[in-house]
């Protein structure tokens, strides 16, 4: 049997070590089956093809919203920028999404901390209650919220605060999910060490916990912003002629005139989502949270 000479740590005498122990076999990565590769490519095509169609339709040089486009032109992009209605709706959606992002991130982070660290009977039921909005159809939730506003006469029906509350109900579960995932492997002993050195609860959270879970918090805030910006179902029941977010303005534009201006507005919405993802990837490490790599 082949052997490799090694020094005995006790007596200093050479001893025989089987070569099978010291030889490291090369790690060979398993090949991905072809059917999985084809399925992944088809999934990407299905997800990205509508985006490509919207972009090309927004750059259409024709007079109507058609595909394939009759030619490429910035005519309808300029039309969107000069349209008072669509431009106002775009800015209103930005404002609502920003406010909703702040509120949802704050409430969702606190709820995730509570659900992750506090053990009590019915915790799983409470978590399911918080996340139930993800499974409810948006139209049902929007109609229910509108009926609740009207029946209770709280003065929130067809108002901007009422719409913000509706968007918060939809976006908070995303923040709870991402922050809970970031807190799952968090070592509470780090906070205990900071507390033992004299830091208060709030200071320990700001200095220790928040920087560690920041990828989850940032990912949740991104989801909240994007979902609120493109929220149609809630806005359909709570919008007014004076409070019209961009999705409702696009819907009204397509109802009465089938022009590519709506697709041009969609181009700006897509660009906003892409820019927010790229900006966030520079501010925090999404790779630590979800394995996403931005070049």
Write the layout of secondary structure elements.
Layout: E1 3-7, E2 14-18, H1 19-22, H2 34-58, H3 75-82, H4 84-117, H5 123-131, H6 138-152, H7 160-184, H8 188-196, H9 201-229, H10 233-238, H11 246-256, H12 261-283, H13 286-290
Antiparallel strand pairs: 1-2
Helix pairs in contact: 2-12, 3-12, 4-7, 4-9, 4-11, 7-9, 8-9, 9-12, 11-12
Task: Give a verbal description of the structure.
The protein has a single domain, classed as Orthogonal Bundle (MetI-like fold), CATH 1.10.3720. The longest helix is centred in the middle third of the chain and has 34 residues. 29% of the residues are buried. It has a two-stranded antiparallel ribbon. The protein is mainly alpha-helical and 295 residues long. The chain is globular and about 70 Å long. Strand 1 and strand 2 form a beta hairpin. The two termini are 51 Å apart. Helix 8 packs across helix 9 and helix 9 runs antiparallel to helix 12.
> Which structural class should the secondary elements be placed in?
mainly alpha
CATH architectural designation: Orthogonal Bundle
Low-confidence stretches: 1-14, 17-22, 289-295
C-alpha Rg (nearest Å)? 27 Å
Say what the CATH topology is: MetI-like fold
Widest sheet: strand order?
A: 1-2
Biggest sheet overview: 2 strands, antiparallel
Strand content: under 5%
> In total, how many domains does the architecture comprise?
1
Order of helices and strands: EEHHHHHHHHHHHHH
**What does the overall shape look like?**
globular
